[in-house]
Design brief:
two-stranded antiparallel sheet; alpha+beta; 160 residues
């Protein structure tokens, strides 16, 4: 029977391999490490047997990447609840970051009106250039759209 252990104190830089190394000699099934992170640096580890889970909890107070970790007996229900909450928080953070970028773009482009989806609802078209010179070209003008791109890395080239 699989047993779940809750780990607290995991540093942000630690990954699945660090956790598996810490519990070296104990069997953790494939997909048995679930890193939540957050304020408490939480992770949930599923052990294949009661004996391995007991041995794992006895390692509480050890060090992973320079941080002292604490281990507690947990359950699948607690683990699933924490994973679900983590996903909801990540979605909310992503939405907040998108809003921040949209607001940054709004402030960088005067008279730029973006709708709730971030689309420019006040697009300016430029009807100039050789294709729009009615004296030299009888073809209808082709509007040229200009795109303002916000948040690109400074190291990007014109070609990229």
């Amino acid at each position: 029977m699989a047993v779940v252990i809750r780990l607290q104190g995991l540093p942000d830089s630690a990954g699945t391999a660090d956790i598996r190394w810490y519990f070296q000699g104990l069997f953790i099934p494939k997909g048995g490490v679930h890193i939540i992170g957050g304020t408490f640096g939480e992770a949930f580890i599923v052990f294949a047997s009661d004996e391995h889970a007991r041995l794992a909890v006895s390692r509480s107070g050890g060090i992973v990447q320079g941080s002292r970790i604490n281990l507690f007996l947990s359950s699948r229900a607690e683990m699933n609840s924490a994973i679900e909450m983590s996903h909801k928080l990540a979605e909310e953070e992503a939405a907040y970051e998108i809003d921040a970028v949209v607001n940054q773009c709004r402030s960088a482009v005067p008279n730029c009106q973006l709708d709730s989806a971030g689309n420019n609802s006040n697009m300016s078209w430029c009807n100039s250039g050789p294709s729009c010179n009615s004296a030299t070209n009888s073809a209808p003008c082709k509007p040229t759209a200009y795109l303002f791109v916000c948040g690109m890395p400074e190291s990007i080239s014109e070609h990229e």
